[in-house]
Amino acid sequence: MPGFEVFGEEERKEAMQVFDTGVLFRYEFGEQRRGVYKVREFEERFAAYCGVSHAQAVTSGTAALKVALVALGVGPGDEVITQGFTFVATWEAILDLGAVPVFSEIDDTLNMDPVDLEKKITPKTRAIIPVHMMGAAARILEIVEIAARHGIPVIEDTAQSPGASVHGRKLGSFGACGTFSFDPVKTITTGEGGMVTTNDPDLWRIFSEYQDHGHDHVQNPGGRGGEGRRFIGFNFRMMELQGALGLAQLAKLDAIIKEQAVNKGRMREVLSSIPGISFRTYVDVKGDSATFLAFFLPSIEKTKAVNAVLREHGAGAVYFAENTWHYYPQWEHLLSGSTLAHSGWPFQDGHGRRRVIYDPQGLPQSAEIIGRTLVYQVPVKLSDERLAQIALAAKAAALV
User: Fold this and answer.
1) I need a surface site. Which of 56, 83, 88, 353 has the fewest CB within 10 A?
2) DSSP string of 290-343, one letter each residue
């Protein structure tokens, strides 16, 4: 990963079609654009790829989460359950709407633990956001079943796993909504950008209107319609150049996953020589997008020692226990309730009372798992030299 490894003439061709029209805005200018609607086409093809009826392009994966939450009516006083191993955007979007993120444990899939999820549900739970971390599925069938029993919608955060599936069904199609990111380091990229998917036409209509200041889009997706507005909105519109890049990248997604699967297998083979190593559990190994290779060692001490040797040999792995972007105990701004608002919102109410306090020790099961986990990103293009370097590092680490 990511998609920029395979930039080529296809992206240039799609982008030049936009430049030739002179129209970068996704709506209006019908005569000037001469039938070229790249964002609309990207939405249609992405929906078809995911096996859903509707997709709405937006400016980022973070925006996709916010649009999905807004469409489901989430706001102040609500709780949204997500997991303590995710990118900060997942809970930033929840807090930005005044709702309270509630964090569940992960299990050996490195995704949401359905057992702990059910323990965290309260009468205030308005939505559940499992995150399909690092290219592979959460236990989505169990999660959706639990959510259905409680009458709670599921938003699948699929930012890191486009193209992944469970039993042949693409991630992002199981919940009420799926959200995706196309930022610079994602499997397919438009530089910045995101997508929200759904099979619910009413939800899609809200997505469409909210991301464009509430414009009614009666003529959607070609024009902006009669300019009526049912509710206030915001600006999360994707531009035509991003749509153009998205079309070219989407056409390459299956090939990217195929190459990554081969490279992941080669990397796994050379790492298997490390004593005590085990690998992440997959809900459906055939549905893995092979974006990352995650493995466990028997103890936290062993994990740190092995990674120290890997680093010495130029092949250090990502150790998420020390990562400040993706791991609950490292989110110091969340734990301390840091905000720019004079009122202390969203961590404090209007009377200076703390709305929520997060305990850095509050997810012990996740801490034990993450403490023993090392991760490699899997490139689309893996040179023999790089593989040999990893193999040499693994051979040295085997002596720890």
Assistant:
1) 353
2) --EEEEE-SSHHHHHHHHHHHHHTT-PPB-GGG-TTTBGGG-HHHHHT--S-TT
Q: What domains are defined for the chain? A: 3-252 (3.40.640.10), 254-327+363-397 (3.90.1150.10)
DSSP 41: H
10-residue block means of pLDDT along the chain (400 residues)?
88 97 93 94 98 98 98 97 98 97 98 98 98 98 98 98 98 98 96 98 95 81 67 96 98 97 97 96 97 98 98 97 95 96 91 90 98 97 97 96
State the Cα–Cα distance between residues 259 and 275, nearest whole angstrom. Answer: 28
Please, which residues have CB within 8 angstroms of residue 94's CB and are 6 or more apart in sequence? 65, 69, 74, 80, 82, 100, 101, 129
| Threshold 0.90, pTM exceeds | yes
* 186 included as an active-site residue: yes
Neighbours of 300 (CB within 10 A): 15
- Burial track 260-276 (b if 16+ CB lie within 10 A, e otherwise): bbebbebbeebbeebee
Q: Find the catalytic residue in 38, 186, 264, 302.
A: 186
User: Which uninterrupted H or E stretch holds 397?
Assistant: helix 384-397
Tokens 């790829």 locate to: 49
Q: What is the pLDDT of residue 3?
A: 86
Q: Which of 94, 106, 99 is nearest to 143 (CA)?
A: 106
* Among 376, 339, 378, 373, residue whose Cα is nearest residue 356: 339
* CB-facing half-sphere around the CA of 354: CA atoms within 13 A: 8
DSSP per-residue codes, 120-160 = H--TTEEEE--B-GGGS--SHHHHHHHHHHHT--BEEE-TT
Residue 352: which region, alpha, beta or left (left: phi > 0; alpha: psi -120 to 50)? left
